């Protein structure tokens, strides 16, 4: 995509004013004169909070760095290009759409971090466009490197006779049955364009100087066909073609019967506000309201129009008028192909040394595969690290429970599951075997709503008791509870995780699960499930930290304890690893901790509102972010506690939505050996000087490099350590 700011000279002034010019983004610097007065001023402290949209774009810059890094295998760089593109689509659908909603409401002039809202939107647009410019550079560089590896992108104009015949056959066999053109001149109103699709506007012309160009709208069917077509090779040269260009090749076959003689086609793509709007008709039921909201999402307000830069100005203006693009919609020029997120699924052409080496998931040192898993958990807690160790243990746990005659019930939470979910199938099998199975299934997991609706219906059809959470709260905790009868008494076993029970994403997401039979934990896990059945009863917790009841209060108490210890001269530190840290109250508390002398280490993947390293405010705060082969997704909290550290695994990030608007569970780790595992994991991540970036006031994303000494790459080191411990048979 090209973020060119200039439209053709005949474009009207109103349209020109809506195209944000590309500028190099310079993040705001902390104001001078920080010190005692600034620390005591809440207004001044608020100036030291980075806008979370800007920090999220800074995270996606780190993804783009991986795509641009020649030290990364070539096909993994292609994948990072796709990840970047997918992230930017979601950014506009979610983050920018939310800011535009606030602008239209006109009631708030500042963001939650205290920044001027219109200026924050403008800065985000500027930074996004600059990132797209850099994406174009990385994309062009990778295309050149692929060519040097004898992999060539070709379009419909560059085919030899043999390839043209191959493309023609493929077009008639696979593409044409999935293409339905809409003649724009013959309709009063355009169809509702999907925000996850690319469309071609085809220009059709007959011979003659006075012949008028007709236009047709064609959706690229990349939802049912692969986006890339691998063509027959020429010698050792291999060729790849976008399906968009296959359609361009076939335009004369689609419209030839109408005696058009020349054709061209320009790509467009719209991005819509993805927020679900609920009506007030509570009598129709939650599932029906979600279903209606999903249908309405397809007609959500336009946030962005992406168009082919070669598109004639008059056609562009016609498209904008037909779409009714609002005044706050962003118009961006792009290249010939949109939806480059499909690069994540680029065909495997088996280049030598083109991908990271395969790292098969490991077996756990404390789990005997020849014994029942419940027997192992009964003796000791087990901590499993994904994707380094196998997710199969979760499936084994469920399958054992489904056939165990002593198991009476299984309770489980679902936020995001695989489209072909072995987890859900195991739960269905348990219900068929007469177990009482209860599933808390969250229907508002963004972009997974339809998948969850499908599985909810399947589960109910199989006799599973399905609860759709609690009105007004998303259920984001990751819990599993199995209850069985042992010697006439009831015993419970739990799995508490930091990530989703999804056997697809678990291959690339770094997460942790605790398997435990500790009754002080399992009893409180059961209270979380009970709350969803009886939300009118407020549960109590002594061990688990549960949002929205105790989590915020307890985290604040733990921070204040570290402050008191530091002031008293005792050891004091805080070590947090999470995806997002963007809560104002907690940010200020961490600033106060830094001011008191508490050493604060933060590993934050994406949204991050703090500004580390400011003298007089945050000089004791260090922050880093790791972007590597696996997506860092786990949440781990450690507090010094006067030399007796407290360790927690969390489903929650530290954001207002997690602390106040969701059901989240943060679980203490009591076993000293498991505490040691978590500390070793964190120490390796903190030592990373290859893929860890420093989070600083300037959002520079500099690698946490050391001039001399051993190179440490945390994800590789963690795998190697666990491999050394893994049983060989």
CATH topology of the largest domain, which one?
Endonuclease, Chain A
Percent of residues in helices: 25-40%
Shape: globular
pLDDT averaged over residues: 88
Q: Tally of extended strands?
A: 26
Structural account:
With about 725 residues, the chain is of the alpha/beta class. It is globular, with a radius of gyration of 27 Å. The chain is built from 20 helices and 26 strands. The strands form 4 sheets. Strands 14, 18, 19, 20, 21, 23, 24, 25 and 26 form a 9-stranded mixed beta sheet that branches. Strands 10, 11, 12, 13, 15, 16, 17 and 22 form an 8-stranded mixed beta sheet that branches. It has 4 domains: about 30-150, Polyphosphate kinase N-terminal domain (Methane Monooxygenase Hydroxylase, Chain G, domain 1); about 150-280 and about 300-345, polyphosphate kinase like (2-Layer Sandwich), CATH 3.30.1840.10; about 375-535, Endonuclease Chain A (Endonuclease, Chain A), CATH 3.30.870.10; about 545-725, 2-Layer Sandwich (Endonuclease, Chain A), CATH 3.30.870.10. The relative contact order is 0.10.
